[in-house]
Structure formats: C-alpha cells, structure tokens
Write a structure and sequence with these properties.
The complex is a heterodimer of chains A (409) and B (412). By secondary structure, chain A is an alpha/beta fold. Helices cover 51% and strands 8% of the residues of chain A. Chain A has 22 helices and eight strands. Chain A has a four-stranded parallel β-sheet with strand order 2-1-3-4, with helices on both faces. A four-stranded parallel β-sheet of chain A has the order 6-5-7-8. Chain B contains 13 helices and 17 strands. The chains are: A alpha/beta (409), B alpha/beta (412).
Chain lengths: 409, 412
C-alpha cells in the first residue's frame, strides 16, 4: 500500500471533521454543485470500494486547487483523495469527448501552432465559431483560450546560439506544452536567464507532463506520458543535472502529482522527481548558495503577483517574491486570493465556467484595483484566466527577471 | 535567511511574529495549516474558576512558578492583550472586557462560560445583563447544524435567565444546501439577506418584547461589527453572538485580523509547511526542514519561536505505544511517568488528565530545557500550548497564556 492509499484509508481517521477545509474551499464558497472537500473527500471515501460503483459524482466539481490540503490541520491529503475518486468514476463511466480532447494539451497545441496559427486564433476569436464549439464540445464560449504561436519553442531553441561556449554547468529545461505551442517567449526568457547565469541549457525530447489527463481522470494515458518523460529525463537526473521548468504545474506533476496519484514508486520515478525544480525555486537555491548574479537594472514598479495553486502545492513558499525581491525598485504585491478559478481545464468547461469566474472574482478585483497594466503569475492557465477576466496583461515572472538582467528576449 | 521564523500560526505564534516584525525583523510564520484559532471561540480566556483573572494569575504564579503565566510575567499578559485589542480596534473588530472581572457568556449548549475579553459582537450576552429580568430571545436556523435555540434557552432558564427560543426562516438565497457557519457568515454580508433577517428579528421583538437576541456567531466574516450594528438597528434590540462548534467564524475573524496585521508589518506566512526536523550546531538551531513536494524545504533563521501547540494543536503527538514526542524539533518533553500515568481514573475528573500537561519545559526566557534542566537551544523560544506544566483548556487560560508567552517571545 503506498502512502496515498495509506492516507486514503487512514485519513478517514485523521480527519477530525473540523470543517476547516470546507470553510476555505473556494469552489464550495460559490456553488452548491460542490458540497466541499470534507464531504467528497474523507467522508464519501467511506462509501467508496473497488468492487462497488462510486456513490457520488459531485467530486467532479473539485477543481483540484489543493487549498484544502494546505489548510488541513491534521494533514489529510484531500485533493488526492478527490483526484483518485474522479479517476475511478472515469474508469467506470468513461470520459466525455470534450475532456478527452482538452486533456491532450500536447496534441491540441501541435495542431494549433505553426504558420497556420493566425487562422486558428481567428477562429477561436470568432463568436459564431465559439458558439458552435460550445454547443458541440461543451467548451464555454467566453472561456479564456490561449493564442497559438506561429512557431514552437523547440524550433526556436534548435536555431538558438548561446552567447558563450565552453564548459559550463548543465541544466535541463522542461518547457511543457504551453511554452512550446503558445508562449515560446516564456521559454526564451528562461533560456537567456539560465545562460546569463552561466549554464548550458539542454532541452531533451519531452511530452505533456500529463497533468490535464490526471485532472480529467484519464490515469492510464497520464501514466504513459509520465513514463516517457521519466525515461527522457532520467539520465540527467542520475548525473545530478537539475531539471528546471517554468510551468509550475508541469514541475509539480513531475515532482509529485504523477508519482503519487498513479502510485508509481520506482527508483527512476523518484530520481526524476527529486531532480526537478520550479525555476524560481532553482534560482532561489542559487541565491542561497551565493551563485545567483545580482547585476540587476532597477525596475521602478509595483506589480500584482498571484502565487497560483499549483505553485503553492509545491509547499516551497514564495520563491518569486524571494528572487524578484532582490531587484532594486521592484515591489510585488502578493494576491491573497485562494484561486483564479481556472484550475487548468476546469474553468473552460461549459458547466464550470461561471464557477471559475466566481472563484476568481476577488483576484480579478485585486488585479484591477492595482491600476497596473501588468500582473505576474507562474502558471499559464491562470495567466490566461487573469488576462481574460481583467484585460490586464499577465506574464511569467521569469520574463520580468530577464528584463531586470537587461536581457533581450 | 530570516531574522525570526515562527513555527505555528495560532494565537501565540502570530503574536510573537507581530512583535518581532514590529521591531523591524524579517519574519516568516511557517505552519502546517490553520489550527487552534479556527477551533476556538474567538474570545480571550485568561483564567476560569475565578472572578478576577489578574488576581488569580498572580496567585497562580506564586503557587506554580513553572506555569507559562509565571514565566511570561504580568507585564507581558497586559501588553499582549493590549496589542490584540489595538489590532481589533483598527480592524473595526473591537474586544470588550476586563482584566479584573470575567464575563459569563452563553455557549452553544446554554452553559455560562467565563472569559475575560470577547469581541463586541458577543458582549451583550454577558449573564449579568441577561439576568436583569427582561426577556432574551435565542434564535437560529434549522439549516445550521449543532446550534439548537430551544436547548440553549432551556439551559439558560435553568440558570435564572428569562430566555425563549425561535427558529428563523432562512432568507431567500441562491444556495440550496449545506449551510455551514462560514456559508451563513458570507450570506450575512449581503444586504438583502441581512434585511430579511432584520425584519424577522423585528417581528419577534414586536411580539415578545425582547431586549436582547442571541444568534449563532455567523454574523459576517470580515465586517462582523457592522453586520451586528445593522441588525440591532433593524431589530430594535441588542444582539449578541454565541460561538458555534468548529469551524468557528469568530475564531477565523481573530486569525484574520492578526494575519492582516502581520502582513501589513511585512511578515510572511507559509501554510502547508509542516516542519519535521531540525539542524543544529551545538546549542544553536541553524535550520529546519519542512515537508514539500519531492524533497524537503530548508529554512534558515537567526532566531526561532516554536508555537506548534500541545496535544490539541498537534505540536505534541502521542503514539499508540504510549510515547509522546514534539513534532517539529524533536525537543525533549516533560510528560507523565509512563503510559499508566496519562489519565485520571474518571473521564470527567475535575483536575483533568495529566497527559494534557505534557509539553516542553523552558527556562525564564522560554528557551527549551532537557530533563536534566540543561539548555537545548539558545536561540529557540517555546510559546503557547507547546509549553509544559499546564492544561490550557482545563484551566481556561488557552488564549491568555498564548498571548502572554507569544508576546514575550516577540520582545527579543
């Protein structure tokens, strides 16, 4: 029995029914469709049995934001209970076509990006098309969808020439689907920053980390993605070369979500998990070791920053505040909103769009009230949600760090 | 590298953190999750079983020199409480009460509970006022679990208070089910919901001539004082809140105003950071490691405050084999001799159970000591429920001792 399974059974006793999770849950706060983490987690779990049908479908309304885990005073892993329960429902009842498609972000990205991207983007901005997509696919017509890029990050990287050559310490970059197909500029910023810090950056072949599959309950497909990535990354992890990612949800998936939810506990899986870092976590470590360059240009700005749920789930504090706090003149105002609502693919679904907008309301108010034309957030779908809801451009903090180093992207 | 890292986000930890942040230190509060504040009444208990808490504490300090109150000293008690009250005033959530005379406030069972300070939203429920012969109404919603007005009113009547009970109709809302205390608190901040509630209360007052109305403590999360003021105007009677079972909205408010204050002072809070081991050089604590995805996170600071609570708060854990341990730094504990000494023979023994006095023994400066009385860490202070030699719930001093020791540790 692995430790999630152990906590699946033990948490029934660890849970003291204090309701702290339900009172903190941003989804339960805005809708009746989700009765709260305590009910669908440790309580409903008593009625879940491998040999019997799932008792309650409301667990599908869990957005997976993990606020419940974070506030639980007795350490129950509620979000994991919910994710596994959803996977059981999917295994029993199958997965709707819509979820099959949006869970394959690598495939969708590959089809959307490239020279034909303007056409894709035009279509996705064209109201009648969105209306059709909502009718046929169940993707809400106002849901924030990213703009496909005319080139991929990997294509750019192949032609990219580092400024300096020679023997340098190596680091592996895990770009994830969004950087490759929608936001190559995030990957470029990461590369120039890492090179500025004296690293040689390696970009091995990689697939989607599998998180959208995990959160839509397709565990078998997620497992094949994860095993592929582990096979690609393992040689580096074994050689002690750090694996760094700019998508905080991809890095969390490599570190913990995939191994834990899928119950994968081999040495190889653990070696890759232990060798993976969110990029600002990596930079903060460098700083603590006295290896971070601090030749920053001052940036006289006060910007709103939202630490996304998936970053908080790393349980590493606020590395962005620690590192960007070193830039002279730059002041980040941290949002205290629990969640932006989007939770990956959750908020684009027709039946969940309004829930996601209601969940994110206090964050949107915070961003608008800042009066700034720029907000920062480490997670791509959250950036799209914040921009979509507020009209305020939202960028990855690494882009601002590149600017502080005076690096052209 | 922080100046001070406080482990634990309860009352004692937050007070220590605020005190240190106020002195310009770089402060981090590292906590497993929300805790004791969200389970508590939101009042400040100093000492039960006495009329005059301050006099009682002075006497206790002489009889039990290792009691947290004795270690912190009277000045820290008074200053710490004064600080909490200033924070409350600034947040429009004032605390009323007195160091020298306990209030007696109704519980959700209708018992009368001594406490020294209560939020202004509860103060009209003091039994000395309720006993003036004028009728009091206890009201609630059938939808709110674990709050039964007829039970509360019956128990108050048995104690000489003219109390009656009524169930209110839940004002129309989009919500269909699951009305937890927090859901209702959010609804109370909506004007339409409150107007409907006010009308119902006014109708009861017209019919029954009530001078006061006791309601569950769900009257708003962030603007409780204004909600109560508004309802009093609409109802034409004084209104007091009665703390509910967990989750306690009043406890959440207390945590919220402290969190706001700490962030205002530039402090940081990291929840979900369960500290599980320490690294030291000699008697200096250099780092702690908190549980995180894939590997631990290492935190460094010059000074440390352990505020993880006792058995209730999770700072002290018991194994089924009869072994007690301190969870964060593995500090030596002062415990009863052997498993057989944990419990008194009777479940409701009036002296409580010895195991609940387990905790970390400290010196005059709240620094941890081992069984032989030797200093364990020179740069660690232990505060609140994690301290040995008292039973905070039994003695009715949980918040008072937390504030006094927390504030003392905040004063460098």
């Amino acid at each position: 029995m692995d430790h999630i399974e152990l906590s699946l059974t033990q948490s029934l006793d660890h849970c003291i029914k204090c309701n702290i999770c339900t009172s903190a849950c941003p989804v339960a706060a805005v809708t009746d469709a989700f009765p709260g983490p305590k009910y669908v987690g440790p309580q409903a779990q008593r009625f879940r049995h491998a040999a019997q049908p799932s008792p309650d479908a409301s667990v599908d309304y869990c957005s997976g934001c993990r606020v419940c885990n974070q506030v639980c005073p007795t350490g129950v892993r509620i979000a994991e209970l919910n994710a596994r329960a959803r996977a059981q429902i999917v295994a029993e009842r199958g997965m709707p076509l819509r979820n099959r498609i949006i869970a394959r972000s690598g495939l969708v990205g590959r089809l959307s990006s490239g020279p034909h991207a303007p056409l894709v983007n035009f279509t996705l901005n064209f109201a009648p098309a969105r209306w059709m997509i909502e009718r046929v696919m169940g993707i809400h017509r106002h849901a924030p969808l990213p703009k496909a890029s005319t080139y991929t990050f990997r294509r750019w990287f192949k032609r990219h020439k580092p400024a300096t050559n020679g023997r340098r310490p190596q680091v592996v970059y895990f770009h994830g689907c969004s950087t490759n197909y929608y936001e190559p500029h995030v990957g470029k910023a990461a590369i120039v920053v890492l090179e500025h810090l004296g690293f040689e950056v390696i970009v091995p072949p990689q697939r989607c980390c599998g998180l959208p599959l995990l959160s839509n309950g397709d565990f078998p497909a997620a497992q094949s993605h994860h095993e592929y990535n582990v096979a690609q990354l393992l040689p580096y992890a074994r050689a002690g070369i750090p694996i760094v990612g700019t998508s905080t949800s991809c890095t969390l998936t490599l570190k913990e979500e995939a191994p834990e939810l899928l119950g994968l506990h081999g040495d190889d899986i653990h070696a890759v998990a232990a060798g993976t870092y969110d990029i600002f976590e990596f930079l903060r470590n460098l700083y603590e070791q006295g290896r971070l360059r601090t030749d920053f240009r001052p940036i006289e700005r006060e910007l709103p920053y939202h630490p996304p749920c998936q970053l908080r789930a790393h349980r590493i504090g606020r590395p962005v505040l620690d590192v960007l706090g070193l830039v002279p003149g730059l002041r980040l105002r941290e949002s205290r909103a629990e969640c932006c609502g989007i939770a990956g693919t959750y908020g684009i679904k027709r039946e969940k769009y309004q829930i996601a907008m209601d969940v994110g309301k206090s964050l949107f108010d915070f961003v608008r009230a800042s009066g700034q034309d720029l907000a920062l957030c480490d997670s791509e779908t959250c950036r799209w949600q914040i921009s979509g809801a507020t009209g305020v451009a939202t960028r990855h903090p690494i882009e601002l760090l590149a600017e502080a180093y005076g690096l052209a992207v | 590298m922080y100046d001070t890292i406080v482990i634990g986000a309860g009352l004692s930890g937050m007070l220590a953190a605020i005190g240190r942040a106020e002195r310009g230190e770089k402060v981090l509060v590292l906590a497993k999750g929300h805790g004791a504040t969200h389970w508590s009444t939101g009042c400040i208990d100093l000492l039960a079983d006495v009329d005059d808490p301050l006099a009682g504490i002075a006497q206790l300090a002489i009889q039990r020199p290792h009691h947290p109150y004795a270690l912190a000293g009277p000045a820290m008690i008074e200053q710490g409480i004064a600080r909490v009250r200033t924070i409350g005033e600034a947040a429009d959530y004032p605390f009323a009460g007195n160091l020298n005379r306990n209030l007696l406030l109704p519980t959700a069972l209708g018992a009368l509970r001594p406490t020294a300070f209560a939020p202004a939203t509860m103060i009209a429920g003091d039994a000395r006022q309720l006993r003036d012969g004028r009728p009091t109404l206890i009201a609630g919603f059938a939808e709110l679990r674990d709050f039964f007005p007829p039970l509360i009113a019956a128990n108050l009547r048995a104690q000489g208070i003219a109390a009656e009970a009524a169930q209110l109709a839940l004002p129309p809302t989009q919500r269909q089910h699951d009305f937890s205390s927090v859901t209702l608190a959010r609804l109370c901040e909506q004007p339409a919901f409150r107007a409907n509630l006010g009308e119902q209360l006014a109708a009861h007052v017209r019919k029954g001539g009530y001078a006061r109305i006791g309601l569950p403590a769900i009257l708003g999360l962030r603007h409780a004082t204004a909600v109560v003021r508004d309802l009093q105007n609409r109802a034409g009677a004084l209104i007091f809140e009665i703390p509910t079972l967990p989750v306690s909205v009043a406890g959440m408010r207390l945590y919220q105003i402290l969190e706001d204050e700490l962030l205002r002072l530039g402090g940081r809070i990291q929840l979900g950071g369960f500290v599980q081991r320490a690294e030291h050089i000699g008697d200096t604590l250099v780092a702690v490691f908190s549980e995180a995805a894939a590997r631990e996170q290492r935190h460094t600071a010059r000074h440390w405050v352990l505020a993880t609570g006792g058995i209730l708060g999770g700072g002290v854990r018991a194994t089924p084999e009869g072994y007690l341990y301190e969870t964060a730094l593995a500090l030596p504990l002062q415990t009863p001799d052997g498993r057989a000494g944990w419990f008194a023979p009777r479940f409701l023994d009036e002296h409580g159970h010895p195991v609940f006095q387990s905790g970390v023994r400290v010196d005059q400066r709240l620094r941890p000591l081992d069984a032989a009385g030797r200093l364990v860490y020179e740069n660690v202070q232990v505060v609140g429920g994690a301290l040995a030699g008292y039973d905070p719930i039994r003695e009715g001093c949980l918040e008072g001792a937390a504030i006094a020791t927390g504030w003392a540790a905040g004063q460098a």
